[in-house]
Specification:
The protein is α/β, with parallel strands linked by helices. The chain has a single domain, classed as Rossmann fold (3-Layer(aba) Sandwich). The protein contains five helices and eight strands. The protein is globular, with a radius of gyration of 16 Å.
Length: 167
């Protein structure tokens, strides 16, 4: 099925966020659901454009490869796109989904729950090569933060928003 907004210009799609449950069709007749309050830009893009709306080359390859693995480490998981695809495409896989930003993590947990994917373990933490406590600075935006840095000057003139992470 062709997604609703497949032919709409990007400037239209980006200005109409979606709120509620977004069903996303996957290869092989499978699907997953994103639950959003309108702040999840990935869920909105998926509503308008389908699974190819976000990292299309990566997600297609990932969907094919994940059927033959036992464990997935999803670092910087955001609201769960890759973890959810893994769990739906391979019900036997064990997924560890790491997301440090609290509000984005909450949506990850909700998306795992609404899809009934008990094989996905959400972890509210930052993965880094630093062996001590570290802070993460998510971007400041009205949508959910999907980018972060360990540098407090990440967003130049904006005051940083600090999220301490455990070692």
């Amino acid at each position: 099925m062709t997604p609703l907004g497949a032919r709409l210009p990007n400037m239209v799609v980006e200005r109409f966020p979606i709120s509620g449950d977004v069903q996303v069709d996957l290869p092989g007749g499978r699907s997953l659901v994103f639950r959003t309050d309108g702040r999840d830009a990935i869920a909105s893009r998926m509503y308008w454009r389908g699974i190819r709306a976000h990292e299309p080359e990566t997600i297609e390859l990932f969907a094919r490869l994940v059927s033959s693995v036992d464990v997935v480490l999803d670092v910087g998981d955001s609201t769960g796109l890759f973890a959810l695809v893994a769990g739906v495409m391979n019900p036997e896989v064990k997924v560890h989904a790491f997301e440090p930003a609290p509000e984005t993590y909450d949506f990850l947990v909700e998306n795992i729950s609404v899809n009934r994917l008990g094989s996905i373990q959400p972890v509210k933490a930052c993965i880094t090569n630093y062996d001590d406590h570290i802070s993460v600075y998510p971007n400041r935006t009205p949508i959910l933060p999907f980018q972060a840095s360990t540098r407090n000057d990440y967003q130049n003139q904006l005051p940083p928003r600090e999220v301490p992470s455990r070692a």
